Amino acid sequence: MNVKVACVGGGPAGLYLSILLKRQDPSHDVTVYERDPEGSTYGWGVTYWRGLLDRLHEHDPESARAVEEHSVRWRDGVAHVGELTARHRGDEGFGIGRHRLLEILAARARSLGVRLEFECEITSADLPAADLVVAADGVGSALRTRHAGHFGTEIRAGRNHYVWLGTTKIFDAFTFAFTETEHGWIWAYGYGFGPEGSTCVVECAPDTWTGLGLDRADEGEGLVLLEKLFADVLDGHPLTGRSGAGAGAPWATFRTLTNRTWARGNLVLLGDAAHTTHYSIGAGTTLALEDAMALSAALRERGTLQDALAHYERERRAALLPLQSAARFSAQWYENLPRYIHLPPERMFALLGQRHSPLLPYVPPRLYYRLDRAAGRLEGLRRLKRWLGPRLARTLQARRPATHGRRTAPGRPDAVRDHSG
Questions:
Q1: Could you report the per-residue pLDDT of 337-373, keeping only the tens digit for each?
Q2: DSSP E strands: which ranges in 28-121?
Q3: Who wins on pLDDT, 420 or 54?
Q4: At a CB cut-off of 8 Å and minimum separation 6, what does 391 contact?
Q5: Which of 263, 96, 265 is nearest to 191 (CA)?
Q6: Strands, E assignment, 53-100
Q7: pLDDT 10s digits, 315-337
Q8: Alpha-carbon span 96 to 112, nearest angstrom
Q9: Is residue 263 within a helix (H) or strand (E), and if so which, with residue range?
Q10: How far apart are CA 332 and CA 162, in angstroms?
Q11: What is the distance between the alpha carbons of residues 18 and 33, in angstroms, rounded to a whole number?
Q12: Cα–Cα distance for residue pair 165/407, rounded to 1 Å
C-alpha cells in the first residue's frame, strides 16, 4: 500500500515508524513534524532489554548496530537498603542516552529520504494533507486531546511523587537505593547510559514528599537535599535537573493513560499518545518502537488503510495486556513499600524482582518468599503459579470499578515523557 504519511512527533516512535515505512517501500512519502528544535530533547537515558535489540536487528540492521554500539549494558542489579546491600545477577539490560538515540534515528530516517521538519507544531486545525496522520506526540498529544471523546481517553494518577534527574556517577549495575528518613522512606533508581553519566529517578510517598519539604523547595534546594540523602550511592557526584532548558526539576505523579480506541478516520495513535506504563518496569521506549513495528507491518500486509489500523490496534492491545498488568502491580509494590522494606535485603530484593506478580499483594511477604523459592525447585508449583497468577489478575481487573479519567489538555506536559525505556 503506497501512502503519504504525516507523523506528528519526532520521538523514537515517530522516527522509527518513518524508517520502517521507507525501508519497506521507498516510494512512500513520509514527513516527521516535531515542534521543538532539533537536538533540544530533555532527559538522560532510556533502558531496554535484549529482546528489543534482537527485534531492531530484524527490522533495520543499520540503525540497530548504531544503537547497540552507543549503548551500555549490565547484568547485575544492586539494592542498597540503609547500610545493607544485596546484589543479584539478572537478564542483560541496556541503557542509551535519549539524545543519542534520537540522533541515530533521525540520521537514519534522513538517509532513507524521510523529511524531518523541526520547530513545526501541528494541531488538529492545520493537519497536513496525507493518507495517514500518525499522532506520535506523546502523552499530552494535542491531536488526541482534540478528539478525546472519540478516543475514550482516560488518565489514572498514581499516588507517589517522583522526579527525573541525571548524575555524573556511572552506575555499573541497575541500582536501587532506599533511604529511611524521619518522614518515611525515599528511594532512587539509577542506571548508566553512557560515559557521561546515569539517569537517577527519585520517588517517595506523599507524606514523605511534604515532610521533607520537597513540595516547597526550589530546584537547587531539592537537589542538595537529595544529594545528602543518597550520598553513599552517589559517591560524592552531583545530581542535575533540567534547569539548563529552563524547565526546572518538576516532581510529578505518574499518569497511566489508556484509550478506548486508537484510530479516527486516517488518524492513528502511536506510543505514549496511545498508552503509558509505569516507568518502574522500564518498557516505555520498547513499547513505542514495537508499536512502530506493528503499524508498519499492518500497512504492508493489509489491503486497506482501515483494515491495517484495526489490525494494528488489535495486535498491540493484546501484546500490551500483560505489561500493563505488570506495570500496575509494580507501581503498587512501591506504593506499599513498608510491607516489604524491613525484610532482610536479599529477601526484599527477591520480592522486588517479583513485584509484577498479582499474587504478591495477597500473600504475606515472608510466606511468598518461601513459596517462590520452593516453586523454583518444584515444577508442579511453578505450573500452579503460572496458572493462578494470570487468572487472579483478570479477576481483579474485572472487579475494579469503572472510572473515567480527566482528559488531557493540548500540548505536552512535563509530568510524563518516556525516559525510562
A1: 999 999 998 899 999 999 998 889 999 999 999 988 8
A2: 29-34, 45-49, 72-81, 84-97, 115-118
A3: 54
A4: none
A5: 96
A6: 72-81, 84-97
A7: 999 999 999 999 999 999 999 99
A8: 23
A9: strand 263-264
A10: 14
A11: 11
A12: 27
pLDDT digits over 206-252, tens only?
Answer: 999 999 999 999 989 999 999 999 999 999 999 998 754 434 458 99
Grid coordinates belonging to 390: 494470570
Residue type, position 220, single letter:
G
Q: Which residue has the cell 512535563?
A: 414
Q: Residue 185 has what DSSP assignment?
A: E
Mean pLDDT, residues 131-142 = 95
Query: What is the distance between the terminal CA atoms of the chain, rounded to a whole angstrom?
Result: 31
416 backbone dihedrals φ, ψ, rounded to 5°: -140, 115
| Contact of 411 with 139, CB cutoff 8 Å | no
Question: What are the CA-CA distances from residue 352 to residues 159, 173, 339, 341, 345 (Å)?
Answer: 19, 15, 11, 10, 10
Instruction: Tell me the three cell numbers of residue 76.
Output: 547485575
- SS3 of residue 94 by DSSP: strand
Q: Which three cell numbers stand for residue 145?
A: 486531546
Residues 6+ apart with CB under 8 A from 157: 253, 254, 255
CB distance 309 to 296 below 8 Å: no
Tell me the whole-structure pTM to 2 decimals: 0.88
The alpha-carbon radius of gyration of the chain (Å, integer) is 22
In angstroms, rounded to a whole number, what is the distance separating the alpha carbons of residues 226 and 246?
A: 20
Residue 118 near residue 36 (C-beta atoms within 8 A): yes
- Tell me what the pLDDT averaged over the chain comes to: 88
Question: Would you give the DSSP letter of residue 283?
Answer: -
Burial of residue 216 (CB within 10 Å: 0-12, 13-18, 19+) is: exposed
